[in-house]
Write a structure and sequence with these properties.
Elements (H helix, E strand, L loop, with lengths): L1 E6 L8 H14 L4 E6 L1 H4 L6 H18 L7 E4 L5 H10 L4 H5 L2 H10 L6 H15 L5 E3 L5 H18 L7 E3 L34 H9 L17 H14 L3 H7 L5 H27 L2 H30 L6
Parallel strand pairs: 1-2, 2-3, 4-5
This protein binds tryptophanyl-5'AMP.
Length: about 325
Amino acid sequence: MRVLSGIQPTADSFHLGNYLGALRQWVLLQETHETYYMVVDLHAITVEQDPKVLRQRTRVSAAQLLALGVDPDRSALFVQSHVPEHAQLSWVLECQTGFGEASRMTQFKDKAARQGTEHASVGLFTYPILQAADILVYQANEVPVGEDQRQHLELSRNLAQRFNRRYGKTFTVPEPHIVKDTAKIYDLQDPAAKMSKSASSPNGLIELLEDPKRSAKKIRSAVTDTGREIAFDPEGKAGVSNLLTIHSALSGQSIPELEAAYEGKGYGDLKKDVAEVLVEFVTPFQDRVRSYLDDIAELDKVLARGAERARAVAAETLSLVYDRIGFLPVV
Ligand code: TYM
């Protein structure tokens, strides 16, 4: 069974939502699946990027994945642009996608609205189709992502099914692998919104590579509510519930265990402990990232090896697709 997933190199650091929603699952799935993980630089350029910064962030992203436990001996860890078949399959799939269908993608609508639709790139519009190509080119069975990717996954499934109907069984239809408890981590300052790098306040976002003291401070100033009771109630106590989710995911204690442990205690106690488990997690993580970045030559070699493995699989799918749609073989 194959697994594929990707993450954008569009920030100086991954954030806690990326880790708890998706990357933790990437690491776990290595135990049971054939895994393909990539840094999606092609997706990154759908909005303007400074070339030097993009190159740096791509390496820092790869280093973070290694530091989180992606094992390059088990997983093919690579950079999307190193495998040209993604872009090649994307074109074919664009020709199977309705304009209206692509127009309904809510992430496109949100991002385009933020930039003004006139200025949004055509790449931003076709973004989810490239994502479908990423997944289908590996014949992936499962795709570990956070809740915000569900609609893109649905498009990938639809495209796979449509192509299979039209041209005969070609693609595996992928399933999203979304772990409910941590599928959506919320902004610490606005617990109705998802934690995101485009958050309105930087205090709502925990970056894995920021100074751990700063993270601890953000946790301590997280928005809660005027009540006193520490209970998991996402509707009524969104902020407290988010903190419980983060604590539980990092400490391994279940939510009911935590609720029992905090009986009679206050929000300040909970925040102090969440800050502590977070600092304990990020401090050694940051050391590992630094050590991967100390040897760029080795890091680049790991990525080259990953791309080679990935390409072997991707090329096979692409040649089947080209044949199915009636392209003449190269003789
Ligand atoms: P990206 O780079 O925005 O985010 C990477 C992963 O983090 C998850 N995530 C969250 N999970 C829980 N709570 C949050 N607040 C939160 N914020 C982000 C995302 O769901 C994602 O899994 N389009 C993708 C990248 C991509 C991809 C792919 C993913 C490109 N090709 C193929 C899977 C398969 C994206 O922008 O993720």
